[in-house]
Amino acid sequence: MRDYKIAPSILSADFARLGEEVTNVIASGADIVHFDVMDNHYVPNLTIGPLVCEALRKHGVKAEIDVHLMVKPVDRIIPDFAKAGATYITFHPEGSEHVDRSLQLVRDSGCKSGLVFNPATPLDYLKYVLDKVDMVLLMSVNPGFGGQSFIKSSLDKLREARKLIDASGRKIRLEIDGGVKVDNIREIAEAGADTFVAGSAIFSAGKAGDANRYNTVVKAMRDELAKAKV
Question: Shortest CA distance to 104 belongs to which of 94, 93, 112?
């Protein structure tokens, strides 16, 4: 069985209570805090920056923080997120003039590195930088907004990425982001994913103010993953 990790996206959290939200969702059994960083340039939205990452670390968040940069260009902001406490920093190849160099910058800054592929972006880049990648993130929606529906063709792309990773013999996480829910997470796992970003599916659960509101949905996801045939 693969080492599955659930990564709630704070894009769907209550920003007025963000520290509490993250503390509660990790206590519910989630593994990784997923940061969706948007610049109103590469994608049509504007979200959060390194100061929020730093604030969560100061709040006491010890879990891994997975920073997904939907920004262009990426090189300027990578060291800032590394200094702020990021664990993983992933970016889109379209956001870098020199993908290999940007991946090395992430690692030189002390973080784990990753590439992100939009639904219509081929995996070609990946073949040449597998030695510099710790995570591959496949978008199963178009980046820029939360709450979108899962794009089914992403399953075939997951299978393709899983074959590349397994053939490399390297320890590389395969993450999926967009439209992940209890009713499709098993199918996504069976296609090859081991790390699952879920925003609205988790943060919209339960009753606001209930510290245990996320337990049920995270457990339901775990139960489905336990049934996955891989």
Answer: 112
